[in-house]
Amino acid sequence: MSHKETDNVSPAPRETGNPAVARFSLALSASSLGIALLLLLPPIRGTWLTALGSRWAYILVLSGLVSFGCTPLIMRLAFRYEALDYPASRKVHTAPTPLLGGLAVFIAFLISVLANSILDHQVIAILIGAGLLVVTGVLDDLRGMPARFKLLAQLAAVAMVMASGVMLTLPPRSDLGVLLNGILTVVWILGITNAMNFFDGMDGLATGLSIVTASFLGVVAIQTFQPFLGWLAAALVGSCFGFFPFNFRWQKPAAIFLGDAGSTFLGFVLASLAVKGDWADNGILDLAAPILIFWIFIFDMTHITVMRIATGKVHTFHDWIAYVGRDHLHHRLDALLHSHRKTVLLIFLLSTAMGLGAVALRNARVVDALILILQAVIILLIVSVLERAGQQDQA
After folding, report:
1. Residue ranges per domain, the chain?
2. Phi-psi region of 41 (alpha: psi -120 to 50; beta: other; left: phi over 0)
3. What is the mean pLDDT of residues 196-208?
């Protein structure tokens, strides 16, 4: 479970972890980082980057190795500085669990992108904005931060990427259109960033969704000949894959959580990559591809926003950011399935189904695109009916 669903409880005694597991993890960590260092050596790196089609693989492998190697070290760091998520009545874990997992993901992402040696000003802006959110998230995980400060950091990060030219370009192209595009860009990036933060509510959920989402962004990037988008997507996939075994364990609870540093970083980068893509320039229906890829996030954010406003639970944007509830998609499905693991896997499958639709759109006619979007709506309507029934049975 996520550290975001907290109760007012006294901290548990400091947890040092299992020494045997710690030694095993550190051995794997050293091996993984050692291989990563070899890949960074100029002769090996040059061979990988110049071979046809291998740049994607190099970024993917390097980011995965660094993330896998850094995670045990971050776990020890979190224990040392007591950046832990303590057990509470609404959580499934029974022992203090390290936060700060997002640091390992961010470090791996940053190293793999820089090792790629091809940067433009937009990529640099995304990296700086993401770094700001990571720093803010770490401070929040360590000491806690008011929601308004986190919102200001997010707005600053969005401003950085927009200033670099990462902005939606929907028609009409006029002064009013530019203003509308700016507003939509802010809403999109803030919405997806916080949606990922909210989805960090069950073991492996946010990490796995990031893998699925980034993978389909990468596939669409290949289809549309957008190498920058593809390389960044590959870096994100590898970084999350390296972290995933520690965050999602079938028989045991997560060994470490992403924390705010990780979930906001992943949401921000994914949202920025979607805006950076140029599919929106080729026609309004081309937007169906990113919409389908991010459909799970859009659906959940729309649902909780409408319901919370309708029930009077939130009245301002600050309330929306600060509100902590158990009304998200994974909570509603869990009420139906009575299994956190099955809930997480079902959401992965739903996201994958939507992503496959996005891939199919590449050579689709207008009518095909409309049918795929309608299919996505019907699938989630079916899910809504089922989760509603689950909630009623639980009540």
Report:
1. 19-394
2. beta
3. 90
